[in-house]
Amino acid sequence: MSGHQDGRQSVRQNGAVQAAPDRWKPHGALAMRRRFMDRLATGLSLTATCVALLALCSILLTLLVRGVAGLSLVTFIHSTASPGMNGGLANAIVGSLIQTAVAILIGAPLGMMCGIYLSDYGRGWMASTTRFVSDMLLSAPSILIGLFIYQLIVVPTGHFSGFAGSVALAILALPIVVRTTEDMLGLVPVALREAGIGLGASKWRVIVFICLRAARTGVMTGILLAVARVAGETAPLLFTSLGNMDWSVSLAQPMASLPVTIYQYAGSAYDDWVQLAWTGALLVTLGVLAINILVRVGFGRKGA
Question: Cα separation of 172 and 139, whole Å?
Answer without folding.
Answer: 9
